[in-house]
Amino acid sequence: MSGRSNRLSVNTGHGRNSVPTEDDDMFEVTTEKHGSLYNAIPYMPLPLAVILCILNIVVPGLGTFISSWACLCGCKTKLGKPATAFGLNMLSALLQMVSFVVIVGWVWSILWGMNFVQIATQSEHETSKTPYYVRRQSSVVE
Questions:
Q1: How far is it, in rounded angstroms, from Cα 118 to Cα 111?
Q2: Enclosing H/E stretch for 127
Q3: What are the residue ranges spanned by the domains of the chain?
Q4: Alpha carbon distance 56, 112 (integer Å)
Q5: Could you tell me where the Polar residues compositional bias lies (predicted)?
Q6: What is the pTM of this model?
Q7: What is the pLDDT of residues 32-63, one digit of tens each?
Q8: H helices within the chain, ranges in order?
Q9: CA triplet 105, 53, 123: central angle to 5 degrees?
Q10: DSSP character for 20?
Q11: Residues of the chain with pLDDT > 70: what percent?
Q12: Neighbouring residues of 21: CB distance < 8 A, sequence distance ≥ 6
């Protein structure tokens, strides 16, 4: 007789190889951790983000330079400090323009422009998810 038992094993759904079902309340939320240069990119309206992306493709660093001024004009960033975001965007624009000579700046500038559009589309979706304010009626009867 072998050492194996003939017992029936039941999977409760919480084991190592379990398949999640609709009844499970466990969700994994993943967030990306970005550096301070990425966090300094302002949340811009989508048309402005597309224009600055095109400018970054044509003239590397120009769209990033203009986006740094958007930080001072009221566009929010993940940093929360407009002056710091302005300085970091100016620094990245300068580095994109200087490193354009070795093609690295041009690729970086294109990717930065794509980030402008990506952040603009994400911020549009986030604002549409906010619930409407519902006024609660008083339960007091006069």
A1: 10
A2: helix 104-128
A3: 46-125
A4: 8
A5: 1-20
A6: 0.65
A7: 788 888 999 999 999 999 999 999 999 999 99
A8: 36-39, 46-58, 62-72, 82-98, 104-128
A9: 120
A10: P
A11: 66
A12: 13
